[in-house]
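Course assignment 3, question 2. Fill in each field.
Student: A.L.
Task: Predict the tertiary structure for the chain below.
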Amino acid sequence: MAGTSASREDSQSPAVRQRVGSASGGKSVQAASDSDLSHEQKWARELKVFLYVPNIIGYVRIALLLAAAFAWREAYTSLFFVSYVISQCLDAVDGAAARRLGQVSIVGACLDQVVDRLSTCLLYVLNASVYPDFAFAFFIALFLDMGGHWVHFFAAAVVGAKSHKTMDPEVNAILSVYYRSRPVMFSAIVGFEGFFMCLLLLASPVVQASAASLSSALLVIVYVTSPLMIFKTLTNLLQGLYGARRLVACDIFGAPSS
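Answer field:
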Protein backbone atom coordinates (compact mmCIF):
# COMPACT_ATOMS: atom_id res chain seq x y z
CA MET A 1 0.00 0.00 0.00
CA ALA A 2 2.83 2.35 0.82
CA GLY A 3 4.49 1.81 -2.54
CA THR A 4 1.24 2.42 -4.42
CA SER A 5 0.53 5.58 -2.47
CA ALA A 6 4.04 6.87 -2.98
CA SER A 7 4.00 6.25 -6.73
CA ARG A 8 0.62 7.99 -6.98
CA GLU A 9 2.04 10.96 -5.10
CA ASP A 10 5.02 11.11 -7.45
CA SER A 11 2.71 11.31 -10.47
CA GLN A 12 0.68 14.24 -9.16
CA SER A 13 1.01 17.63 -10.78
CA PRO A 14 2.18 20.65 -8.73
CA ALA A 15 -1.36 22.05 -8.87
CA VAL A 16 -2.83 18.89 -7.39
CA ARG A 17 -0.06 18.79 -4.77
CA GLN A 18 -0.89 22.32 -3.74
CA ARG A 19 -4.61 21.54 -3.43
CA VAL A 20 -4.00 18.37 -1.42
CA GLY A 21 -1.52 20.23 0.74
CA SER A 22 -4.06 22.95 1.46
CA ALA A 23 -6.67 20.37 2.45
CA SER A 24 -4.13 18.84 4.81
CA GLY A 25 -3.49 22.03 6.71
CA GLY A 26 -1.31 23.91 4.23
CA LYS A 27 1.52 21.36 4.14
CA SER A 28 2.14 21.33 0.40
CA VAL A 29 4.80 18.99 -0.94
CA GLN A 30 7.13 19.84 -3.78
CA ALA A 31 8.00 17.28 -6.46
CA ALA A 32 11.71 17.85 -6.00
CA SER A 33 11.62 17.01 -2.30
CA ASP A 34 9.71 13.79 -3.01
CA SER A 35 12.30 12.57 -5.47
CA ASP A 36 15.00 12.96 -2.82
CA LEU A 37 13.22 10.68 -0.35
CA SER A 38 13.83 6.96 -0.07
CA HIS A 39 11.02 4.44 0.04
CA GLU A 40 11.45 4.14 3.81
CA GLN A 41 11.30 7.91 4.29
CA LYS A 42 8.12 8.16 2.23
CA TRP A 43 6.53 5.35 4.22
CA ALA A 44 7.57 7.04 7.47
CA ARG A 45 5.81 10.23 6.36
CA GLU A 46 2.68 8.30 5.43
CA LEU A 47 2.77 6.38 8.71
CA LYS A 48 2.93 9.66 10.61
CA VAL A 49 -0.39 10.70 9.05
CA PHE A 50 -1.96 7.30 9.73
CA LEU A 51 -0.96 7.72 13.37
CA TYR A 52 -2.43 11.18 13.83
CA VAL A 53 -4.35 11.28 17.10
CA PRO A 54 -7.75 11.83 15.38
CA ASN A 55 -7.09 8.82 13.15
CA ILE A 56 -6.15 6.67 16.15
CA ILE A 57 -9.47 7.68 17.68
CA GLY A 58 -11.11 6.38 14.51
CA TYR A 59 -9.35 3.03 14.89
CA VAL A 60 -10.50 2.85 18.51
CA ARG A 61 -14.06 3.51 17.38
CA ILE A 62 -13.85 0.58 14.96
CA ALA A 63 -12.58 -1.68 17.75
CA LEU A 64 -15.46 -0.57 19.97
CA LEU A 65 -17.98 -1.33 17.22
CA LEU A 66 -16.51 -4.81 16.83
CA ALA A 67 -16.74 -5.24 20.59
CA ALA A 68 -20.36 -4.09 20.49
CA ALA A 69 -21.22 -6.58 17.76
CA PHE A 70 -19.58 -9.40 19.71
CA ALA A 71 -21.30 -8.33 22.93
CA TRP A 72 -24.72 -8.41 21.27
CA ARG A 73 -24.03 -11.86 19.85
CA GLU A 74 -23.13 -13.12 23.32
CA ALA A 75 -26.15 -11.39 24.90
CA TYR A 76 -24.01 -8.94 26.88
CA THR A 77 -26.50 -6.12 26.42
CA SER A 78 -24.84 -3.70 28.82
CA LEU A 79 -21.43 -4.16 27.19
CA PHE A 80 -23.00 -3.70 23.77
CA PHE A 81 -24.68 -0.47 24.82
CA VAL A 82 -21.60 0.97 26.53
CA SER A 83 -19.25 0.07 23.66
CA TYR A 84 -21.53 1.60 21.06
CA VAL A 85 -22.20 4.78 23.03
CA ILE A 86 -18.50 5.35 23.72
CA SER A 87 -17.75 4.89 20.03
CA GLN A 88 -20.36 7.50 19.14
CA CYS A 89 -19.14 9.93 21.79
CA LEU A 90 -15.62 9.69 20.36
CA ASP A 91 -17.08 10.89 17.06
CA ALA A 92 -17.39 14.31 18.67
CA VAL A 93 -13.78 14.18 19.87
CA ASP A 94 -11.81 13.31 16.74
CA GLY A 95 -12.74 16.46 14.82
CA ALA A 96 -11.92 18.72 17.76
CA ALA A 97 -8.62 16.89 18.27
CA ALA A 98 -7.74 17.28 14.59
CA ARG A 99 -8.25 21.03 14.69
CA ARG A 100 -6.61 21.55 18.07
CA LEU A 101 -3.52 19.48 17.23
CA GLY A 102 -3.24 20.70 13.65
CA GLN A 103 -3.75 17.15 12.40
CA VAL A 104 -6.54 17.65 9.89
CA SER A 105 -6.10 15.12 7.09
CA ILE A 106 -7.97 13.87 4.06
CA VAL A 107 -7.62 10.26 5.15
CA GLY A 108 -9.00 11.26 8.55
CA ALA A 109 -12.10 12.79 6.97
CA CYS A 110 -12.60 9.61 4.96
CA LEU A 111 -12.07 7.42 8.03
CA ASP A 112 -14.62 9.43 9.99
CA GLN A 113 -17.24 8.91 7.28
CA VAL A 114 -16.50 5.18 7.07
CA VAL A 115 -16.79 4.66 10.83
CA ASP A 116 -20.01 6.69 10.99
CA ARG A 117 -21.56 4.51 8.30
CA LEU A 118 -20.32 1.32 9.97
CA SER A 119 -22.00 2.46 13.18
CA THR A 120 -25.43 2.92 11.68
CA CYS A 121 -25.07 -0.21 9.55
CA LEU A 122 -24.49 -2.21 12.72
CA LEU A 123 -27.81 -0.97 14.09
CA TYR A 124 -29.60 -1.73 10.82
CA VAL A 125 -28.24 -5.26 10.63
CA LEU A 126 -28.91 -6.10 14.26
CA ASN A 127 -32.43 -4.69 14.10
CA ALA A 128 -33.11 -6.71 10.95
CA SER A 129 -31.95 -9.84 12.77
CA VAL A 130 -34.36 -9.37 15.69
CA TYR A 131 -37.24 -8.01 13.60
CA PRO A 132 -37.10 -10.25 10.50
CA ASP A 133 -40.58 -9.19 9.37
CA PHE A 134 -39.22 -5.66 8.90
CA ALA A 135 -35.85 -6.66 7.43
CA PHE A 136 -36.69 -5.10 4.07
CA ALA A 137 -37.48 -1.75 5.73
CA PHE A 138 -34.11 -1.82 7.49
CA PHE A 139 -32.44 -2.62 4.17
CA ILE A 140 -34.09 0.42 2.58
CA ALA A 141 -32.84 2.57 5.46
CA LEU A 142 -29.33 1.14 5.03
CA PHE A 143 -29.48 1.68 1.27
CA LEU A 144 -30.48 5.34 1.65
CA ASP A 145 -27.87 5.92 4.35
CA MET A 146 -24.91 4.28 2.62
CA GLY A 147 -25.88 5.26 -0.91
CA GLY A 148 -26.83 8.83 -0.09
CA HIS A 149 -23.68 9.57 1.88
CA TRP A 150 -21.38 7.88 -0.65
CA VAL A 151 -22.78 9.71 -3.68
CA HIS A 152 -22.76 13.02 -1.81
CA PHE A 153 -19.20 12.56 -0.55
CA PHE A 154 -17.97 11.42 -3.96
CA ALA A 155 -19.62 14.35 -5.74
CA ALA A 156 -18.07 16.82 -3.30
CA ALA A 157 -14.64 15.36 -4.08
CA VAL A 158 -15.22 15.51 -7.85
CA VAL A 159 -16.28 19.16 -7.85
CA GLY A 160 -13.39 20.08 -5.56
CA ALA A 161 -15.49 21.26 -2.62
CA LYS A 162 -13.52 21.95 0.56
CA SER A 163 -16.09 19.94 2.50
CA HIS A 164 -19.08 17.74 1.76
CA LYS A 165 -20.97 20.15 4.03
CA THR A 166 -20.52 22.97 1.51
CA MET A 167 -23.52 23.38 -0.76
CA ASP A 168 -25.77 25.91 -2.42
CA PRO A 169 -28.75 26.66 -0.11
CA GLU A 170 -30.85 27.62 -3.12
CA VAL A 171 -30.43 24.12 -4.53
CA ASN A 172 -31.23 22.22 -1.35
CA ALA A 173 -32.58 24.25 1.55
CA ILE A 174 -33.15 21.25 3.84
CA LEU A 175 -29.58 20.00 3.54
CA SER A 176 -28.28 23.54 3.93
CA VAL A 177 -30.11 23.91 7.24
CA TYR A 178 -29.04 20.43 8.32
CA TYR A 179 -25.35 21.08 7.73
CA ARG A 180 -25.20 24.73 8.78
CA SER A 181 -27.15 24.43 12.03
CA ARG A 182 -25.28 22.38 14.61
CA PRO A 183 -28.34 22.05 16.88
CA VAL A 184 -30.37 20.67 13.97
CA MET A 185 -27.66 18.22 12.95
CA PHE A 186 -26.98 17.14 16.53
CA SER A 187 -30.67 16.61 17.28
CA ALA A 188 -31.24 14.67 14.07
CA ILE A 189 -28.26 12.38 14.60
CA VAL A 190 -28.98 11.73 18.28
CA GLY A 191 -32.65 11.12 17.55
CA PHE A 192 -31.81 8.83 14.65
CA GLU A 193 -29.33 6.78 16.67
CA GLY A 194 -31.62 6.78 19.70
CA PHE A 195 -34.54 5.45 17.68
CA PHE A 196 -32.69 2.44 16.30
CA MET A 197 -30.80 1.78 19.53
CA CYS A 198 -33.93 1.74 21.70
CA LEU A 199 -35.78 -0.32 19.12
CA LEU A 200 -32.98 -2.87 19.28
CA LEU A 201 -32.82 -2.87 23.08
CA LEU A 202 -36.54 -3.61 23.25
CA ALA A 203 -35.78 -6.99 21.65
CA SER A 204 -32.99 -7.80 24.09
CA PRO A 205 -33.77 -10.74 26.41
CA VAL A 206 -32.08 -8.82 29.22
CA VAL A 207 -34.41 -5.85 28.80
CA GLN A 208 -37.46 -8.07 28.40
CA ALA A 209 -36.57 -9.83 31.65
CA SER A 210 -36.18 -6.51 33.47
CA ALA A 211 -38.86 -4.34 35.01
CA ALA A 212 -41.68 -3.35 32.69
CA SER A 213 -40.86 0.30 33.32
CA LEU A 214 -37.60 -0.06 31.37
CA SER A 215 -39.36 -1.37 28.28
CA SER A 216 -41.97 1.36 28.62
CA ALA A 217 -39.27 4.04 28.79
CA LEU A 218 -37.52 2.66 25.72
CA LEU A 219 -40.81 2.54 23.84
CA VAL A 220 -41.49 6.18 24.70
CA ILE A 221 -38.06 7.14 23.36
CA VAL A 222 -38.79 5.25 20.14
CA TYR A 223 -42.01 7.22 19.63
CA VAL A 224 -40.44 10.56 20.57
CA THR A 225 -37.42 10.13 18.29
CA SER A 226 -39.34 8.74 15.32
CA PRO A 227 -39.85 12.21 13.71
CA LEU A 228 -36.10 12.85 13.97
CA MET A 229 -35.41 9.43 12.46
CA ILE A 230 -37.69 10.26 9.54
CA PHE A 231 -36.04 13.65 9.07
CA LYS A 232 -32.54 12.13 9.12
CA THR A 233 -33.60 9.46 6.64
CA LEU A 234 -34.93 12.24 4.40
CA THR A 235 -31.56 14.00 4.52
CA ASN A 236 -29.88 10.73 3.51
CA LEU A 237 -32.12 10.57 0.45
CA LEU A 238 -31.59 14.25 -0.37
CA GLN A 239 -27.82 13.87 -0.07
CA GLY A 240 -27.87 11.18 -2.72
CA LEU A 241 -30.07 13.21 -5.04
CA TYR A 242 -28.01 16.36 -4.55
CA GLY A 243 -24.78 14.47 -5.15
CA ALA A 244 -26.21 12.83 -8.27
CA ARG A 245 -27.23 16.23 -9.67
CA ARG A 246 -23.73 17.58 -9.07
CA LEU A 247 -22.23 14.62 -10.91
CA VAL A 248 -24.65 15.04 -13.83
CA ALA A 249 -23.68 18.71 -14.00
CA CYS A 250 -20.06 17.60 -14.30
CA ASP A 251 -21.06 15.29 -17.15
CA ILE A 252 -22.81 18.14 -18.94
CA PHE A 253 -20.51 21.06 -18.24
CA GLY A 254 -17.32 19.25 -17.31
CA ALA A 255 -15.70 18.70 -13.93
CA PRO A 256 -13.58 21.52 -12.47
CA SER A 257 -10.01 21.25 -13.73
CA SER A 258 -7.19 20.69 -11.27
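Instructor remarks: Residues 212-253 form the longest helix (42 residues). DSSP finds twelve helices and no strands in the chain.
Grade: pending
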